[in-house]
Task: inverse folding
């Protein structure tokens, strides 16, 4: 374990294995070359578990959800026995895409080209002139091509590799960490799907490090105090970085502290933390100059009041989880900031043909207690719940805000994409605290070797 890995240890969360790096070079070409993109398509994407759908969006037999993923598209379909089967969204006659609708209910998928009817369990049940096939009746011989499907945390995960390990094995320590939150009961309140002019890995790189927080998100506070206004302790020395053997990462940042300035005499607790405290029946004025004490006070108040207010999952959570930022990146393309009541879903999907484009999902799920009185409260912000967002709002980057923090990240995504094209870039020069970025690229390359 390196010095970085040892710096801070959460009380209740033992560090993961944090295996050493091979220190491969990370050049610019991987972000813009078609050759690298093709390698990912050939060797990596068909082997990994992908978080793709949401169980509650297809509650009844015949309900389906369709998700595009790079050059692929998948149909996830609820079956009569309540299980979910997933298929490539392609007709086995001559390769037409079966449907372009994101969600629906169907007993059969009828190909728009020659009208073949594929039953929801994948069997072909009707083909015109079926006697005219020298190789035999297609209904006797063909099925939709199925992909391995499992569910966890209310999400539908697929793997194109028929011999893939189980999802539980794939997720390793994430499984237990997440189960405590009862995320399967959480609802989606924000769903923005954005066409981004950058490679998908740029987004994951960014979510794999916290080195940029003080410069991209809170530059004016960075010089004197390594704390963001939102009361998250962003210093790498107080952050726990974990790398799992399975290739996933975890970063635990203590949060719930008062903003910069509230540690000194007379320093007041400002919003959003002040509002969060009032929600939990704590008077922020009693904490003037005591910005270090607010974290524990919030934890205690949530413990006491949470179950009565319907936050049943608090019983399963450790104190840290009631306030702190637990940020996970799941290999290869998913990141989440997980708060006691919010799941900031950050997923990058590769573009079908262009390595310098991707699709970025900026979604929020939140706990849904019976007696909910407030919007989604994370200790870094207040997110209006609005209505359930079943249909994602799809647009091009720049057309709408993605929220202040992600807007700031997105600007970086784009100018980094420009810089990475340069023949004058000699490869990344990583800090210790950027180990997760480096490891991410090593994981990708490990698929090319097999
Ligand atoms: S391509 Fe689907 S029926 Fe012909
Ligand atoms: Fe960021």
Result:
């Amino acid at each position: 374990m390196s010095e970085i890995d040892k710096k801070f240890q959460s009380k209740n969360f033992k560090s993961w294995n944090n295996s050493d790096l091979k220190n491969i070079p990370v050049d610019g070409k991987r972000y813009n070359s078609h050759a690298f993109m093709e390698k990912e398509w050939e060797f990596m994407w068909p082997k990994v578990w992908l978080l793709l759908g949401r169980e509650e969006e297809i509650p009844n037999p015949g309900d389906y959800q369709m998700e595009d993923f790079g050059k692929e598209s998948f149909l996830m379909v609820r079956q009569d026995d309540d299980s979910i089967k997933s298929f490539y969204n392609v007709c086995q006659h001559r390769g037409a895409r079966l449907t372009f609708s994101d969600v629906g209910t169907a007993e059969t998928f009828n190909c728009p080209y020659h009208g073949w009817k594929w039953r929801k369990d994948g069997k072909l049940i009707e083909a015109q002139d079926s006697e005219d096939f020298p190789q035999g009746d297609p209904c006797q011989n063909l099925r939709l091509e199925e992909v391995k499907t499992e569910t966890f945390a209310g999400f539908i995960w697929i793997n194109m590799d028929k011999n893939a390990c189980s999802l539980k094995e794939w997720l390793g320590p994430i499984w237990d960490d997440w189960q405590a939150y009862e995320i399967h009961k959480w609802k989606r309140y924000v769903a923005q799907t954005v066409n981004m002019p950058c490679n998908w890995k740029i987004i994951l790189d960014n979510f794999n490090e916290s080195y940029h927080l003080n410069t991209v998100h809170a530059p004016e506070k960075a010089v004197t105090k390594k704390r963001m206004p939102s009361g998250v302790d962003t210093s790498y020395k107080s952050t726990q970085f974990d790398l799992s053997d399975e290739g996933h990462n975890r970063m635990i940042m203590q949060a719930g502290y008062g903003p910069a300035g509230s540690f000194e005499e007379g320093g007041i607790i400002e919003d959003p933390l002040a509002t969060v405290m009032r929600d939990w029946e704590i008077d922020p004025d009693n904490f003037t100059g005591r910005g270090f004490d607010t974290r524990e006070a919030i934890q205690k108040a949530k413990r006491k009041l949470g179950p009565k207010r319907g936050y049943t999952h608090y019983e399963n959570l450790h104190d840290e989880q009631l306030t702190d930022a637990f940020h996970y990146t799941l290999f290869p393309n998913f990141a989440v900031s997980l708060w006691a009541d919010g799941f900031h879903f950050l997923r990058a999907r590769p573009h079908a043909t262009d390595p310098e484009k991707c699709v970025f999902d900026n979604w929020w799920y939140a706990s849904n207690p019976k007696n909910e009185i407030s919007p989604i409260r994370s200790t870094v912000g207040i997110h209006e719940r609005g209505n359930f967002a079943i249909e994602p709002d799809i647009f091009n980057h720049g057309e709408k805000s993605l929220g202040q923090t992600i807007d700031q990240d997105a600007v970086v995504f784009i100018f980094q994409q420009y810089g990475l094209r340069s023949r004058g870039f000699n490869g990344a020069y990583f800090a210790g605290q950027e180990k997760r970025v480096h490891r991410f690229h090593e994981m990708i390359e490990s698929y090319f070797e097999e």
